[in-house]
Amino acid sequence: MTRGAFLLLWGATTDDKTMKVRNSLKSLRSRHRDNRLVRRKGRLYVINKTQRKFKARQG
Length: 59
Prior knowledge:
Helix content is 19%, strand content 27%. The chain is globular. It has a 4-stranded mixed β-sheet, with no helix packed on it. By secondary structure, the chain is an alpha+beta fold. It has a domain at 19-58.
């Protein structure tokens, strides 16, 4: 079962609800001009308040 199918079984949509998990966020930060790199609870996140599909977490 793919991850998208698993999420759909539980009622979640796959459009912008899922977050990319990467080892490095440097390339993801430069994908959009509004991307911000923040540290929360010991983890690094890329957030974007205008285009939410660009969100990501390191790890």
